[in-house]
Amino acid sequence: MGPRFQTHHVYVYKYVASAETLYVRGSSGQNAGVGMTTRAHLSVAWERNGEQLVRLQLFGTRFQSTAEQKPETRNKPSAMFGSSSSKALQQPIFFLWRRGKVDGIYVNNEEPFEIVNLKRGLISLFQLQPIVGETIESDIAGECKVTYRMKRNRVRKLRDVKSCTNRETAFPATNKVLGTEWHGTGIIAATVEQDLIKLVAAEEQHNITVNIQTTAGTRVLSRQRMKLMDSTPGPEPTQEFSVDRAIAAIAPGYTARFLGAEKSPSHSKMHRSARLMVQSVRKRMEPDNLGKSASTRSFISLLRVLRHSSQKDMLKLLQKEPEKTLLQLIDVMSAAQTDASRLALLSFLDFSKANKAEAYERFLYGCAFATRPSPELLQNLMDRLDGQIASAETRQTVIIVIGALMGKLCQAGQCQLPVVREAWKRLLAGSDTNNSDTEIQTHLLALKNTFLPETVHIFTKHAELGPGATSAIAISGLQGFPSEFITHEVNSAMNRIYHQSNQIYEKTVRVAAAERILTGNPSEAEVRNILLSLHSLTPEMAKFILARVEDLLRVGHPNSNIIQEVLKDHRVHNYEQFARSGSSSSFSGFMSKMEGVTSTYNLNILYSGSGILRKSNMDIFIFSHGSSLHATQVSIEAQGLEGLIAGTPDEGEEDLETMASMSPILFDLQLRPITFFNGYADLVTKMWSATGEPTSAVKGSILLIDHSQLIWLQFGVPFGVNLLGALSIDISGSMDVSLWDRQSKTIVCNKGAVVLSSVGSMVLGRLKVHSEHILSTEARLDFTTTVQFTSYPFLVCMQMEKDTFPFREEQQQSERLEGGYSWNARRAREFNITGSEFPLHQDNSMMCNIMYDVEEENWY
């Protein structure tokens, strides 16, 4: 029949509930949180056809810190809510109950939301239906999927807390590697004797972690226990015909509500002054501190404050900020992604003036890495593109960022928005073959950032048409797609490019086409033809193709089975084919292996026949939760330098202009390429004026992880989650050619700091419970290639080193009662991870098993 109460009785239950934050790692005897004890008196106020209107009233309510059981941490309701609100705790609440199912509640309209939600948490324990199996039912967290199990007088209910509808989650991550994982459990066990609930115990736990570092996150535990203590004679139920009339008769002013929790109406809260916050972190925001943990932590702290600041206040900050730290402030405001920050930045930055070109770039890259992309931001950039832009480089960056924003909006299911469709039309028009090569290349880079399958045929067309730089960009765009998007037409085009069926291509383009074939879904014939063509290639190109094939075999690439099958043919696999001289190379290895996360590196270096670097790609990939993330790529390309050392250009490259450039990719986003020099005259000028300092490709702080969530605990208290991950980075590179020493030197320096801040918070009346888990580290990775081309074969020295770097973990918890007590706890540990040298050539492959030596690891 199901649980029910007898009329003319008052049932007295003792109710104890608590919610506490937990340490992510390790355990402590003390956890910040709040507990509640009370006596609940329940009686039947109306009954008809098995349906009961139950009256519930609380007495003797007390609140208690879960961290410290001291007299000063035990609080009367008046200390928690104020004298007027605390009286509402004793006001009765009614719920409609039929065979253990709660169909709704009736609440006094004047009762504060927080008080009502606590009572909702108690009423949710009476949601005990006499069924077995799955069903959907309401509780404080909304409509939830539950599974009932019964054994004699015991009922066990499993709540699928992730299915509950009453929750709030911010914009999802565009890549799962930078996303979060939510694990939640909810269990209710009850004893029911003769249709009377004697005991109910409930427990739920939520664990929200960061995918890229599963030890970072926040946890919360909530418990409830209700036990029948007594039964005494009670009042006579009203005899009204309907429940509505019954409520009107016994509780005027009460209205029907759902059992799901209601969020308190928004009200003004005091937030820390943005001006004072900027002053406190300004020193750590100086350019020399970029790439350090202190700078990144300041970025996150200031970001949280700016998200509550007005447009007027932020504009004043921009106008008064010293030049030395202005760019870093722009980084933070760009990452805030509120309407106020967006409008303040657009008011401050005038693209028609050339005096703040670097500030424009920092703002635009902040837009490109938006974790909460908005159509309004895309429209703003489109409007700026229509207006006057003083710098050609800034205009190129605007176009590239429009592609990134458009792609993110499409991933969020907003491809049909008018502004997104307009952006698509513009990018298509810009990539038309009637435009200049520079215009086409810029728009292809923008299309590359969209990751839309509709771009595949566009890239394929431009890959074949050229010229070389355009073809290389187009093929790199194709590399970003999984094999299922690479059709027969694409593969045919790549084969025509590699084998030069219709025209002559630069060898960097041919190598890129071969890479797309070998890592896609090649047939045995395609692999065989590539290997049989080695004898017709220049020595360095042949050496590179062979090294790439061997690297795919060594790392066990999915296509290695096809390659191995082809190598069974002795016409392909023989000494003449595989004994290739040259210094070009391709090598992949592991940077780190952790639980759930793996990172790899890949180095491809192609030299010209004269011994000068033609192209190098340094890539780092991160794999987690079945997804991959192209963390970084620094591509350095040089051409037309053979004349400087009286060398002979390779086939198809006789007329190339002297040029060297660097093209960066950062977290899947293609950034604007940087030109070292363009033309012989420019080369000579920069050689004489060179300072020896590398050219910066990417510099600043960006927000990578941005997760907000509100979880309603069955206790009746909301648990807020805010996970932020930021990167402070400085990627630079240089290429020097010494005519006197007949030597070239290429340097790529990656310096960065990462901070993951995971905050969990609960607010109940005047009590604020806060927990924060912080992981921070900073590292430097240098890659240097030195080539002596005094003779052939020329001497090559390649080095990739990671310095010893610090790792710090902090966990903090606090309780603070306004006008009352406060409690804080903190624990931390630090250790160093020793530096490493990474193998860059297959002859040193046994070095791939990289060990991290922990020098110190202690909590304090």
Automatic annotation (TrEMBL):
Keyword Membrane attached: no
Show the segment(s) annotated as Disordered: 65-84
Q: Which Pfam families does the UniProt record give? A: MTP_lip_bd, Vitellogenin_N
- Location of the Vitellogenin domain: 5-617
GO terms under cellular component: basolateral plasma membrane; endoplasmic reticulum; Golgi apparatus
The keyword Transport is annotated on this UniProt entry? yes
Q: Which UniProt keywords apply?
A: Disulfide bond, Endoplasmic reticulum, Signal, Transport
- PANTHER family in UniProt: MICROSOMAL TRIACYLGLYCEROL TRANSFER PROTEIN, MICROSOMAL TRIGLYCERIDE TRANSFER PROTEIN, LARGE SUBUNIT
Record protein name field: Microsomal triglyceride transfer protein
